[in-house]
Amino acid sequence: xxxxxxxxxxxxxxxxxxxxxxxxxxxxxxxxxxxxxxxxxxxxxxxxxxxxxxxxxxxxxxxxxxxxxxxxxxxxxxxxxxxxxxxxxxxxxxxxxxxxxxxxxxxxxxxxxxxxxxxxxxxxxxxxxxxxxxxxxxxxxxxxxxxxxxxxxxxxxxxxxxxxxxxxxxxxxxxxxxxxxxxxxxxxxxxxxxxxxxxxxxxxxxxxxxxxxxxxxxxxxxxxxxxxxxxxxxxxxxxxxxxxxxxxxxxxxxxxxxxxxxxxxxxxxxxxxxxxxxxxxxxxxxxxxxxxxxxxxxxxxxxxxxxxxxxxxxxxxxxxxxxxxxxxxxxxxxxxxxxxxxxxxxxxxxxxxxxxxxxxxxxxxxxxxxxxxxxxxxxxxxxxxxxxxxxxxxxxxxxxxxxxxxxxxxxxxxxxxxxxxxxxxxxxxxxxxxxxxxxxxxxxxxxxxxxxxxxxxx
Length: 458
What we know:
This protein has helices at about 1-45, 50-85, 90-115, 115-120, 130-140, 145-160, 165-185, 195-220, 225-230, 235-270, 275-310, 315-340, 345-350, 360-385, 390-415, 420-430, 430-445.
């Protein structure tokens, strides 16, 4: 009887921490997805070429953001475990390592996006109007990458140390400002000349600058531990760097592999036709919006598991993983059903129910709805459980096998050899998720992720 009471209390603690960490992250992710969707919808008034251009240019930024995600994932894993040991000095040092690494990597990438924009966009499409508009976007958004990286690393550390509300509050203000700037710059309000696609990029740049400034002011006013903690002379810096690199390199490689594969999926649809590319580009931000809640919960799962692994409470970490996998399976199925029921209203809200779009958008939305269940279960196992235990090298191998050996070749074969229609090609992307789920579940059951990464031997 006592054991059952203990498990019940433990489950309650897990759920309360999930709400505390996951809900703010979910809301913030939803706001970011809404912003991306707003970019697409606002520039859609300038034609399908503008819509496609934002989608293409955003994908290149997406690849760069995946580098940031890999670096911040590695730092977040370690910060969570060091925070579990009450070691703020090591947590701060890891944060600085991640920030510096990203700046050095992203500076040359930003320059490439500016000076070789037409060349890289030409890989995705042969439409000269789309390439010109996409180049304008990359030019005006050139400072965004480094600014975004600093924001992502800061937010990751704050969440891993248990503070999800502050990043949410600052992000919410920034996103409101961003959408307001979109309204002014894209369409040309209050006497400004309409900038179209370039206006969306400039609005994002200005908003990121304000977000960095807001974090700076907050840290100074609160005497935050990130700015006040003095490095412990007993901290082995070389050991920290080695541990961070061991996690960061496969995390970045995995993120790049996945992002490059996503780009290739878009290239496939871009060569099918501009209309097909516009549908694919519009569904992308909407899909991200659907993932927002699940992403927040997976972050909560990762933080809770990471802190328990740092304290070497392996039983609690295991119970947390079981609870979250069941929760994600249930929520994934529920979301699929809701999307299918409300499909007509959703297509109308996305302005994809016209005679031109509907033959493509309706079946694609149905396929996307079915894919949600698979993708969400994969998300919690990969990001919430395996990565929390430092299984980044396995995740790299898994992404390569599922996407590059199965998903991409089968989708390309369907498009260019079998010459299937748009919806059939779109459905072929599900192969990757099926393979991924099988590999991840097998690894999860082996329990190799139950590790304390803060010890010297790791």
